[in-house]
Amino acid sequence: MSRDSVKVLAGVDIGTLTLRLLIAKVTADRRLTELCSERRVLRLGEGLERNRTLLPAAVSRVIETLKDWRTVIETYQVDGEAAVATSAVRDAANRDEFLARVKREAGFDVEVISGEEEARRTMLGIRSGLPAGVTAILGLDIGGGSTEFILDRPGCSPVVRSIELGVIRLTERVLVHDPPIPEELRAASDLIKKGTEGASAHLGDLKGTTFVGTAGTITTLAAMALRLATYEGARIHNYRLGIETIRELEHEILRRTKAQRKGLPGLEPGREDIIVAGVLILRGVMECLKFTDCLVSDLGLREGIVLDLATHLA
Which of 70, 95, 152, 312 is deepest in the core (most CB within 10 A)? Predict the structure, then answer.
C-alpha cells in the first residue's frame, strides 16, 4: 500500500482534565493503526468554576506536555496534525492568551470546538470500534467540564446535547468534603438528574439503542471493575459495565477518602478525588434513562480528531 493511500496523522485532545495524544496510520477506508499514544491527567480546568480563568500552574503543566509531544510528533514525520480544546478553554476568560502561548511555545494551532462538535468527533471515534451488530447507540462522554449525549441511529441525523456538568465542575461546585457528606451527594444527584432530564427531552424515545460510554471516567470504572493492575485497553474496550457493578464501585469509592483510594486496582493516578463525581454522573444518567448496562469504548474524541483530519486531507 502506497504512502499516498496511508497517511500518518497526529491528534491532540486538550481536555479539561486530561491531555491525549494519538499518532496513527490511517488508510483510505478510514482504518486506524495506532503508532503512539499517551495521556496525562493535568487538570487544565482546575479552579475554572470559581475563577473563570485558566490558572498559571495548570497552563504551565499543559504547555510543558505539549512541548514534549511536539518533539514526539516530529519523530514520526506526520502528514498532518490537529489539536483541539474543549470545555475548559471554551469557557475561560483568558483563552486567547492561552492559545497564543500554545502556538508560540509548542507550535500547535489549537481549534476550540463546541460541545456539539466535540460530540460529533467523539462519535467518529466510537463508531470506528463498535462490535458487530451494534447500530443505534446513545453515546455518553463524561469530561472534566461538560458531558455530551450523542444519539446516533443509522439513516437519521445525530442528536447531540452537551450539558455543563463534568467531573471537575461538579467536584468544585458541590463535592467539598472528603469523602463527600450526604447533603453534597444529594446536591450532586439533583444536578445530574436535572441535566440528564434536560438532555433527554431532546433525545426522544431511546428504545432499541445501545448505551455506549467513552473517555477516562468510564474506562477507569471499567478498569476498576476488572481490577486491573495496569491499564489494558484491549480488555476495557467493549466491556459491558452493569449498573449493579457501578453501584458497588460507588459504594467502594465513597467509603474511602481521597488518600485511601490511592492504589485501588484500576484507578488511574490523579483521579482519586474526581472519580466520585464520575461514578455519580454515570450511575445517575443510567438510572434516569433506564439503562442497565454500559458498553465501554476505549475509542473516542482522540481517535475522532484523527479520523476527521483524514477526511479533510483526502
Answer: 152
